[in-house]
Design brief:
alpha+beta, Beta-lactamase, 2 domains, seven-stranded mixed sheet, 21 helices, 36% helix
């Protein structure tokens, strides 16, 4: 009996060990090694991502700028391919066998069980022809997705474009899989996570030939896609289109800002391109054509990433800083004898009344006045121990006015411009070996100083607001209800007391009435403006202007840059005048001037 009990115990022990081994192995296969479960499921289930429709984009007045339309892609699940007639499918798609094999191998490298993109953006003819014969090509199915549709040929750089994701995109964000699209520039890039929405998922039962047999558990485990949110841009479509018409045949930019909000009303960069060129089957070819156009550089967003010497428009900065630093006041007079002499050199000026106070210096754009002011500040030993210390104070104040740094709003790829720190001049001249006259060109916006068009437009907004600004931005609201809550509504003060702005504004208004900016005038509207002529050797000077209007209730602040346009009054001033008239009056009555500017072209070679 004891022997039997002993044997019984051993038998049960063996059975128990065998059962335990099976249980452990099953646990390993189903839990610790899920690829086997995945492979089994892949034979019966097809997981199809539901790409949500991308959010639409409207202008500030509710005019639709960007919409969606349906496009069809051909997807492949390599594991489900059975006895494929390769030549027939190649004929339908218009590719050769080598290209077919290349695409199939690429899909297999991604996954043999998960769907991969095989052919994107099928033409209507191909889609129709393929739909009728798709049953012959097991492992392939057609997947609808949305692509962008544009209602304007303008604002390409502001709206941006979308493109297929690459490996870097997928590594940075696991939301994306092969074949997805993402914003590459403009609003499409800045608001990508808002516009793209949230993916959904359908689970489809398939048989051993890959044919769909219906929803898995009647869709119980499906997840609905969440559409992207719509955006209301700050851009005025009509003003944007008008600005681009004015800049035809010219290189440069127009940036118009609403001073009360910092919203960008138009952001023109010329030459440009139609946004629709970067949609559809010809997108890649069109992009490469634009990219390789080294003469016109249509992909270059001059408004944000082109740097220019600000020229005499920068005198507004110095007029404010000299007053705030206590160097000059409204009664300070500086003379001008056709320029500023220092050592055996002379920085020239044009003929105008002399001596001048702050207001008259702005009105007549006197070079000598600002050179004398810079020397008075940097060599002032009552306020500063050294030229370097004085310059550091000047540099700090310029940065507060929005130069030499990015706004970090929703303007993708913007650059900071150049306002050199004191260290730069220490390296160039040696420590304690440079003086105001060593860098005298910065007094008139030349030398090492460079600014972007959006920074100059923001300067006009600061002066219009008498001492503060809102970060320039391109979006007015999200879903037309959600106001922006990202710092764009915060006032940024520039540490220039309000009492110092009236002298500068009066000078800008006088410049329009009887000074260098006469061509910026608009009938019936009080305009404040400052011209600039930026040296650009060996080519012709750039034509610049900053302005705002109306003076007593500013609604628009503008910077205009026309490359190689000569004096600021030649091209920039009349363009600004027309932009202000169009925006403030909703129409332009000076058709002769309008026609002259639109038909005017500048030869660059």
């Amino acid at each position: 009996m004891k022997t039997y009990d002993k044997r019984k115990w051993w038998i049960w022990t063996v059975f128990g060990l065998v059962a335990l081994i099976y249980l452990v192995r099953l646990f390993s296969l189903q839990v610790l090694e899920p690829q086997w479960t995945d492979k089994a499921a892949a034979n019966a289930l097809r997981y199809i991502a539901e790409i949500p429709p991308r959010g639409l984009i409207f202008d500030r007045n509710g005019i639709k700028l960007v919409d969606n339309e349906i496009s069809y892609d051909l997807m492949v699940v390599p594991r489900n391919i059975r006895s494929l007639d390769t030549s027939e499918l190649c004929n339908i798609l218009g590719i050769d066998t080598a290209e077919f094999n290349n695409r199939l191998q690429k899909a297999k490298r991604y996954s043999t069980y998960a769907p991969s993109l095989f052919a994107k953006r099928l033409s209507p003819q191909t889609y129709s022809f393929l739909t009728e014969r798709l049953y012959r090509f097991s492992g392939f199915y057609i997947y609808p997705r949305t692509v962008r549709k544009y209602y304007t040929d303008a604002a390409a750089h502001s709206l941006g474009y979308i493109a297929e994701v690459n490996h870097t995109d997928m590594e940075k964000d696991d939301y994306y899989t092969a074949g997805d699209y993402t914003g590459r520039s403009g609003i499409e890039k800045s608001y990508e996570t808002v516009l793209r929405g949230e993916k959904g998922q359908r689970i489809i039962l398939v048989d051993n030939l890959g044919r769909e047999q219906g929803r898995y558990f009647d869709g119980l485990y499906d997840k609905s896609a969440v559409p992207g949110k719509n955006l209301w841009a700050s851009i005025d479509k009509n003003l944007q289109e008008y600005g681009e018409q004015l800049m035809q045949g010219k290189r440069g930019s127009i940036v118009a800002i609403e001073p009360a909000t910092g919203e960008i009303l138009c952001l023109v960069t010329s030459p440009s391109y139609a946004p629709s060129l970067l949609v559809g089957s010809e997108r890649s070819r069109n992009y490469m054509s634009l990219h390789h156009d080294s003469v016109n550089k249509p992909l270059l967003n001059r408004a944000l990433i082109a740097m220019y010497p600000p020229g005499s428009t920068f005198k507004l900065v110095n007029a404010l800083i000299f007053q705030q630093a206590g160097i000059v006041n409204e009664h300070t007079l500086y003379g001008c004898q056709m320029g500023f002499a220092y050592g055996n050199r002379k920085l020239g000026c044009h003929n105008h009344p002399s001596p001048l106070n702050v207001t008259a210096s702005v009105q007549h754009s006197c070079n000598a006045w600002y050179c004398r002011g810079l020397v008075a500040m940097l060599e002032n030993r009552k306020h500063y121990k050294s030229t370097r210390e004085a310059y550091a104070d000047w540099h700090k104040r310029v940065l507060k006015l929005g130069f030499g740094q990015k706004f970090n709003s929703d303007l993708p790829y913007e650059i900071a411009g150049i306002i050199p720190a004191a260290d730069y001049y220490d390296k160039a001249y040696g420590v304690n070996r440079w003086r105001a006259t060593s860098i005298i060109s910065i007094a008139i916006g030349q030398g090492e100083i460079c600014a972007t068009p959006v920074q100059l437009a923001n300067l006009a907004a600061i002066i219009a607001n008498r001492g503060y600004y809102y970060s320039p931005h391109l979006i007015h609201s999200i879903t037309h209800k959600d106001s922006l809550n990202n710092g764009f509504t915060l006032r940024k003060y520039v540490d220039i007391d309000e009492v110092y702005f009236p002298q500068v504004i009066e000078g800008m208004e006088r410049a329009v009435i009887a000074g260098t900016a006469r061509r910026a005038s608009v009938p019936g509207i009080r305009v404040a403006a400052k011209t600039g002529t930026a040296e650009n050797p060996p080519r012709k000077d750039h034509s610049l202007l900053v302005c705002f209007a109306p003076v007593d209730n500013p609604r628009i602040a503008i910077s205009i840059i026309v490359e190689n346009g000569g004096f600021g009054a030649t091209w920039a001033a009349p363009i600004a005048s027309l932009i202000m008239e169009r925006y403030l009056n909703d129409s332009v009555v000076r058709k002769d001037l309008e026609l002259q500017i639109m038909n005017g072209k500048i030869t660059y070679w």
